[in-house]
Structures are given as C-alpha cells and as structure tokens.
C-alpha cells in the first residue's frame, strides 16, 4: 500500500512540476507525456533530454521545482490540484481538445492539470453546463438578458460557465448564485489571484459554493495570451456557448471559435439594430458562426441532450434526411447542428475510416447538404418542403 501511495505522490508531483514549467497549454509536452508517461517526461525536462520542439518552451523554468510548495499553497487556501489521474478529471469534456491539430491550434492542447477552488466536483458540475460570455462593457439590456437566461438555466440545474470578467461574465455568475445554482469561473491566472481585482468578493463567493478553475499554477499573473488560451476551457467545459451581448471586437468571438472547433453549438442573442454593443452578436449570426436564440427554451433546445423541437419552431438545420443511408447518413449525423468539424475530427463521432469520411463528405456536398469553409465541414441550412 505504501508503495502504491508513493507512486501516486510521485506522479502528482510530476504533473505539478510540469504545470509550473510550461504554465499553460503545450502540445509538445502533452505528446511527450502520452508517449513516455508523466514521471519520465518530468525527468526528461529536468535533465533537458528533450526534442528540439520542447527545449524552448521549457528553458526558462525547467530548473524551478516548486511542486511541493505549490501543493502546500493550494491546500492552504482550501483548493486542490486535479490531474488526469484523478476521478474528478473531466476527461470526456476535454477529449475534443486532444483531437485538434497542434499546428493549427497551438493553444488547443489539453491542460496538464487543473487548479481548483470550491466544494463541487468538476466532473459532475460540467455534465450539463452552458458557457455564457459577452461584452465587458455590457449595457442594461445585455445585463437584463444575461441575468434572465443564466438565472433560468441555473434554476433548472444547468452549470453556468464563464470567465469572471466585467460585464456579461460577472452578471452570468451572479445570476447563477442568486438562485443557488452551480457556476464555474475559469481564470487566466492562478486561482489565488482574483482577476479582476474588483471581483475578489465575487470569486470568493463562487469558490464557496461553486468552482474557480485555472490551468495556471498559484501565483501566476494574468497575461494577454492567457485569456485566449483560457477561452478554450470555457468552451470545453460546456455543452454550448451563448453570447448575450458583444461588440464587433469582443473577445467572446474567440470563445465561439473554440466552440465551433470543438463541435459545440454557438448561440447568440440579438439586440437593437442601433446598439453598437450587439454588433458582434449580429455579425456572428449573419456569418453563420452562431445560431440566433431569444429565450431559455431555445437555448436548451440547441444545447440540451435531447434536441427536442420547440412547439411552432421552424428549425433551420435538418435532422438526418430520410433518404440518406450508409456512410453518408453516418457522416451527416456526426456533423454538429451548428458549427463545423474537420474530417479527422469526425472519426471520433462515427465508425468510419478517414478515407470513407472524406468520400461521404464529397457526396453530401454534391447533394447540397453540407458545405466547407475555413473552419471545416458544416451542415447547410435547408428550407422545409411544403405546399403553398
């Protein structure tokens, strides 16, 4: 028993050491761990017995081994580290990240560990969740819509995931807390460093009843590129991403990009056509990056597991057409209702080889059922047939 416990401790220290060395996503290090195991990977980093792709990312901090101190600190503030060895690790939520191409998505790697504060299980809390994001300079309209929908969802048991930023993020968290619903704040810094500082009380409240999560070790200061990498986790932890209000240059669009790459539905609330605060939502809807929704029931219809049609709703994306059979039916069903996937990503969603998937996609394109853009293959919106 002691030997088993010692081995587990050795692995945990190795995970934490490597988390400190790279501080964020590192596809090359994840590949090394997958190949040789976390303990051997940690030894290789310490001794610089590494491929060229890892020497640069590990050069600055490979001699810093504060794993024991980091574990002591996180325990002292009432938190914990969750590694891929732990039952709480949300493996199925993060599976999509492991299937992204490292060259195309350098920040898309699976996190090495997750630093967590809060009493809930990360695995259970992310089983039915929606990410709600948007403008940091939200208007009264944006706050009201965010509060109503996030509050309704939380009251129905949905976990609200967001980034604890000013504006829409904070309103989404507060709406969940107001109905004693679950909420997860994903930070771009250490969980011991409230960011923004003005939200120290909000984050403390979330940590008391929900979860504050980060892939960055304690003490890590938020940097600009951390936020873009953080957004992939907001998308990954949820069944879909809802943007309630966003300007044209809103960072919420980056979270929507990650949702589409992961095959999650992206949803957007329209606003007044005269409001600059909603131009980002309108652009995403117009460009087909997000599906227009206006109420809680529509959000659940798109992001919920059953995808039941609402009474009286026309629906813009068909279920699998009845005339499709075989490979074409399987591939069409594997494409998300909103968003897109690349051929290699579809291999995880249907029991076909990559050549068979590519052949079926071409056939579906010729039939006018799917299209291809820079993000991948997607279903085309079809008009429902009917008499005049």
From TrEMBL:
It comes from Nocardia bhagyanarayanae. GO terms for biological process: DNA-mediated transformation. SUPFAM superfamilies: MCP/YpsA-like. It holds the Pfam family DNA_processg_A. Residues 81-302 form the Smf/DprA SLOG domain. Belongs to the DprA/Smf family. This is DNA processing protein.
